[in-house]
Amino acid sequence: MVIAFGSFFLFSVSSLAVISFALSDNHGEFIYNGFNGASLHLAGIANIQPHGLLQLTNTSNRQIGRAFFQFPIEFNTSYSFSTSFVFAFVRKSQDYFGHGMAFVISPSTDFSHAVASEYLGLFNISNDGASANHVLAVEFDCVLSPEFKDIDNNHVGIDVNNLTSIESTSVSFYSNGERKNRRLELMSGEPIRAWIDYVEDEKLLNVTVAPVRCPKPNYPLLSKSIDLSKILLDTMYVGFSAATGAVASNHYVLGWSFNRSGEAESLKIAELPHLPKEKIAQIGIKELVLYKVIMLLIVLIFLGTICGAAYLFWRNKYGEVREEWEKEFGPQRFSYKTLYKATKGFKDKDLLGEGGFGKVYRGTLQSSNEEIAVKRVRHKHDSGEGMKQFVSEIVSMRRLRHRNLVRLLGYSRRKGELLLVYDYMPQGSLDKFLFTDEKPSLNWPQRFQILRGVASALLYLHEEWEQVVLHRDIKASNILLDSELNGKIADFGLARLHDRGSSSKTTLLVGTLGYMAPELTRTGKANMSTDVFAFGALLLEVACGRKPIEPQGLPEEVGRGLCCGGNGAGFEIRPTMLPPRSGN
Ligand SMILES: *[C@@H]1O[C@H](CO)[C@@H](O)[C@H](O)[C@H]1NC(C)=O
Ligand SMILES: *[C@@H]1O[C@H](CO)[C@@H](O)[C@H](O)[C@H]1NC(C)=O
Ligand SMILES: *[C@@H]1O[C@H](CO)[C@@H](O)[C@H](O)[C@H]1NC(C)=O
Ligand SMILES: *[C@@H]1O[C@H](CO)[C@@H](O)[C@H](O)[C@H]1NC(C)=O
Ligand SMILES: *[C@@H]1O[C@H](CO)[C@@H](O)[C@H](O)[C@H]1NC(C)=O
Ligand SMILES: *[C@@H]1O[C@H](CO)[C@@H](O)[C@H](O)[C@H]1NC(C)=O
């Protein structure tokens, strides 16, 4: 029961608050914080929206909207009055805007002959300026109309029977805090509060404006000495008139208070209705759909670009060449990504060496923690029979098993590049031990062990496997050493494979000067004997610690003899008899 009574009480209070007009027996004062239930006479397209917003015009062209307080005000005792209201002009997005709104005191609410546009719905061309009008208006005008001597397109003016203002000024307000005038845009779309005061004794009409959140400025925008008794009649209506023309805006009034007996009560800003969110409301359904589609397209294009860039980046970084025929080599095939990760991106600091075929990098397979060496062999032909044959030869060499051969683990392919994966040999190549100070010198038993290992591997390649594998480039830098200093032949098979029994048909000269048998440089035909000749040169190299060829001529002479057969000028073959380097 108590609860029921309580809620009834609350209901009554809130409905009173909404219909907040006062003292219907005294029409000299009223206050509307929002216009729900207000006693207004509406004309033209003016309407009160469900949440209490008074809309005078919308954005249709050449429209008029008027709203007057329903009851006449008696001015027979005094002409003093005070009024305050909050209004907002909201334009259609980005369009031109106009025309404006006026606060009006008029003997009648009948403006049926008035026209829109610059006349603001107040007069027409024949009655503008007629003293019989008895109209006082304060205009808030957004269009410069030269026929009325308007000063700009953002002004406030005091009009008496005539749209040519007797006093006007650009819109600004005195900021009490900053103690200076600040410009205000009528078309900002933000609510603006206005005060219009007239005190009969002073005969001063003051007009003041400010943004809705600001207090009333200490100084009015317009202060005009004027005798209203000469203009107004005893009984007058008060209200607003707004008009649109070839340009249009929404003209809204959010709240209004009026007082004849004292200063108009301040409006309660928090209770005022909200302005509609015009930008979205103004965009039609079609435009909204179009807008969304365009946004979606932009987002898709953006995402597509990112994905494309990511794909290109990935392909550039990890992309590889993989062909149908390689399926059978599946287990031997490493993905480029695996090798890239294993070598941490083929950094220079992991470069083990650089030979005739390409650079060799050190790496660690992430899956097994196994140390590997990756040789990157550059080539011109990406696909076709030649490549297929080469890859299958290389892969078949995986089956070569000998403790003195560097084990081939597999391969990978990229555009213009073949990657061969080998066991990593921690001690590096034999020439480092023989010819540089980086490594300690080898003693005789170590040298012998290395040579014996190389010899047995060479025998295996030549005679013990199902095919003859010619190495064609036996030399110290192609002999790698494991941790126990066992010599292992590297790079076998990069020169071609040969079937047992048939001699080479290759004419391309492969090999290194100083290790090449004399007949090889003449005929260009490699065979087992030419490999053995090279091994002989290696024997001497290991025994004496000197290179088979040491250039002694002038630089321009050096190189003339390269690969042209015989012992070219500028080179001297120094066989055998020099002692090994010191330390042994
Ligand atoms: C403006 O109001 C009039 C009358 O209510 C209506 O016919 C017209 O469609 C409205 N225009 C817009 C742009 O909302
Ligand atoms: C003013 O006019 C009203 C209505 O016409 C009337 O009741 C009132 O007595 C008048 N007051 C004066 C001071 O004339
Ligand atoms: C202007 O308005 C007056 C009434 O206020 C009317 O008598 C007159 O015909 C109108 N003139 C035009 C041109 O509409
Ligand atoms: C309107 O007011 C202006 C300025 O006061 C004046 O020059 C003009 O003659 C007036 N118009 C009429 C028709 O009286
Ligand atoms: C109007 O403004 C003038 C100048 O600031 C001021 O002296 C006067 O008191 C004001 N009158 C009213 C009614 O506010
Ligand atoms: C009108 O002024 C009187 C005297 O200052 C005040 O008591 C009253 O609340 C005011 N009413 C309105 C609606 O402004």
TrEMBL record:
Residues spanning the membrane: 289-314
SUPFAM superfamilies for the chain: Concanavalin A-like lectins/glucanases, Protein kinase-like (PK-like)
A cellular-component GO term for this protein: plasma membrane
Record membrane topology: Single-pass type I membrane protein
Binding residues annotated for ATP, in chain numbering: K375
GO molecular function terms noted in the UniProt entry: ATP binding; carbohydrate binding; protein kinase activity
Species for this entry: Rubroshorea leprosula
Lipid biosynthesis keyword on record: no
Similarity-based family: In the N-terminal section; belongs to the leguminous lectin family. In the C-terminal section; belongs to the protein kinase superfamily. Ser/Thr protein kinase family.
Signal peptide positions (record): 1-24
Keyword Cell cycle on entry: no
Localization: Cell membrane
Protein name: Protein kinase domain-containing protein
InterPro entries in the record: ConA-like_dom_sf, Kinase-like_dom_sf, L-type_Lectin-RKs, Legume_lectin_dom, Prot_kinase_dom, Protein_kinase_ATP_BS, Ser/Thr_kinase_AS
Alphabetical GO biological process terms: defense response to oomycetes
Alphabetical UniProt keywords: ATP-binding, Cell membrane, Glycoprotein, Kinase, Lectin, Membrane, Nucleotide-binding, Receptor, Signal, Transferase, Transmembrane, Transmembrane helix
Domain Protein kinase: 346-584
